[in-house]
Structure formats: structure tokens, C-alpha cells
Amino acid sequence: MKIIIPMAGKGLRLYPHTLNTPKPLIHIAGKTILRRLVESLSEVIKIFSVQEIVFIIGNNGENIEKKLIKLANDIGVHPIIYYQITPLGTADALLKAKDSLNGGPIIIVFSDTLFYNTSLEKEITNKVDNIIWTKKVKNPHLFGVVKCDSSGVITHFIEKPNNYVSNLAIIGLYYFRNSLCLRKELQSLDNNKIKNEEEYQLTSVLENMRKKGEKFISKQVQEWMDFGNKKRTISSNSKILSIEHNHSQLIHEKAIIRDSLILKPCSIGENTSIENSIIGPYVSIGKNTKIKNSNIKRSLIQDYTKIQYANWHNSMIGNHIFYIGKAKEISLGDYSVYN
User: Fold this and answer.
1) What residues are paired with 266 via a beta bridge?
2) Domain coverage including residue 315
């Protein structure tokens, strides 16, 4: 079995945070999104003896490639890298990796998605040819969705439907027993220039495969986190902190906290110092960051950043940022309200 991770998108909805850092390498509670994703597949990698992990990237540079190679080596799997320089959709990205779609079983997982409490290794059996993992959502028009019969067999794939047909969103996690069937349909889509909003979409490929007789089963995950934009990323950060703070040490032993209140759950990285501040709840702070005289909640802060006199919530702050707000001196009488 192989694992394929497309991550060539430019992350436009997360600008300016993705100008220098690809979205999958943004840190959430001490780990990159990509590392969290790979770790969530650890049982699959072990049980199915996964030997190869495929990354499909854009023009990200040598430094990013080194990080991907190191990540694969850390888990004992051979890395292969393909390139999608021009972003023409998810199906086009996968077609760039066609040399790795040579007939064996594969898992495809997109790099801006995380899932919890899902036993993929138990759901992948010889009785199923293809699995699409899904989650019920309140706004299905924003996603690719599936419609199923009573036994969970998928009867339709629809990309961002204008009218309600189903609330089962495709979360970006797929299993194919025979990757050659997928390769043939990806190539057919490209040969016939079948586009959806000027892009080659994987949802169109899956629907074509279904019409030609391929059987797809929908399996629902219990917890899904999406990092498509700033709002979803901050929300997903909060979910991860809620899940992990009961069984993980999220405040690094080398973090320095003076005259400050930490409202859990929070993650604070190595060599980060916090002074005269209120932090939390739901704040992730990277390593080597310094925060003074600030009140920050429900936010995400990366590495090597200096912050003073900040009063933030629902905020994202990148690496190597220097921010000084305005110090205020006030005097309030009894029964005052100040915002």
C-alpha cells in the first residue's frame, strides 16, 4: 500500500500566512498539520506495511522538500515527490503522480484535513474496493458531497451542490484497492478536458468511475478538522486543544511563565516566555516566542515572534513577527464598563 498526500495548493484563503509557509507546515499545538496527519495514519502504515509515501507539491523550494523527506524518514517510509507547478485542481495534482498509481492499493489524504477517533485499519478490508470517508456538515454547498443508499453504498458524487442533496461532505480521505482504475479515469478526464470551474476535480473522476461500475462505500469519521481558511483553522486549533489537553502535556517544560494567568487548554512551545499576561483559553503558541503585557485568547501564534500590549482573540500570527500595541493608562470609577 502507498499513501499519497497532495499539497500543491497555494493556500490562498489563508494568505498572508501561506506566503512563506505552506499550509500543511503551519504549527498547531506544537506540531505541523502535516505531521499530525501522518501520525494519524500510523496504524495503517504499520498494519499494511506501507513502504512509500508520495507528496505532490508546488514550487515550494529545496528547504520544504528536505522537511518532507525527513518526515518520511522519521516514520520509516520511503518518500517520493512529484510536482504540480500550475494549480489546475485535485485530479490534475493526482495525475502528476501517475507513475505511483500502478495497480496496488492506495490511500489518498489531502493535507488540509485532520481526523480523530477513526479506525481506518479496521475499515479497510478485502470486502470493499473503494472507501470515501465523510462527515455530516451544516453547509454542504461548500464541499464535495456524496449521496448514499441505506447500506452506505454511494449513489452520487456532487461537487459543491447549489441545492441540498446530502449533508455528507467528502473530507479528503480516500481508499482505492486498485489504483490503476483511478489512474485511467484521471487520464480520461485530462484527455477530454472535463473541467469544473476551470479545474480538474477529483469528485468528477469518482462520479465517472461510479457510473462505469466501481463500487464506493461511505464511512463517517467521528471528528474532522478542516484548515481551509483562517476561521476554520482557528476553530480546528480549539478542537485539537480540547481533545489533547486531558492526556498530553501541552505546556513545554522549558516555557517561562512569569506573573501570568494561563487559561487552559493552551499549548506553549519550548523557550517561549510569557510575562504579565493572560493567555487562553484555546491559544497555541510556538517556540522561542516572547509575550508581555497582553491578553490573548482563541488564537494561533507561530515561532520566533515578539508581542507586547496585544489584546487579541480569533487571531493568527506568523513566524518572526514583531508587534507592539499601545500601552494604556486608565482610571475607572465604581460600576464602570470598559470595552
Assistant:
1) 283
2) 245-324
